[in-house]
Amino acid sequence: MLHLSIFPEENWTKKDSLIWMWVAEGFIIEEQENRSFEIGERALLSFMALRVLALEYCGVMGSQYLKSIGKLHRLRYLELQGTGVYDLPMEMLNLENLFLLDVKHARFDDMPKTVAKLSHLQNLQIGEGGG
After folding, report:
1. Number of folded domains in the chain?
2. N or C: which end of the chain has fewer CB within 10 A?
3. Same domain, 18 and 64
């Protein structure tokens, strides 16, 4: 996900660079009949259809990463529990299919107004133990 945030959504000319980064990092492993790059292309297409993303306790997330998550238009479940999130950028409004948002242990002073504008949101998990 972090590598995805490097490239603007409209700039798919750099998709090759992204795939080679994944190969270099060891995220893509060559199979007998498939080359690493081909596997990476399939992985990239699957990210575009991602529906569940759980980033539980993965450290403090900067707003640039949250803006990138806003590009996952089909996302229905987003878990940011324990990530140190303190605000939700306007790009999160692009998550028009988001059904569940888990922000337990977030650092909100006030609940971001962005949340109220998520029209399909039916389950908001907040607080220390939430639910």
Report:
1. 2
2. C
3. no
Contact 92, 113 (CB under 8 A): no
* CA 58/CA 48 separation, integer angstroms: 21
The pLDDT tens digits of the residues spanning 63-114 come to: 667 787 888 888 899 988 888 777 888 888 889 899 999 988 877 777 778 8
HEC profile of the chain? CCCHHHCCCCCHHHHHHHHHHHHHHCCCCCCCCCCHHHHHHHHHHHHHCCCEEECCCCCCCCHHHHHHHCCCCCCCEEECCCCCCCCCCHHHHHCCCCCEEECCCCCCCCCCHHHHCCCCCCEEECCCCCC
Q: Which domain holds residue 31?
A: 1-48
32 and 5 within one domain: yes
Tokens found for residue 31: 């199979």
Do 28 and 54 fall within a single domain? no
pTM for the structure as a whole = 0.64
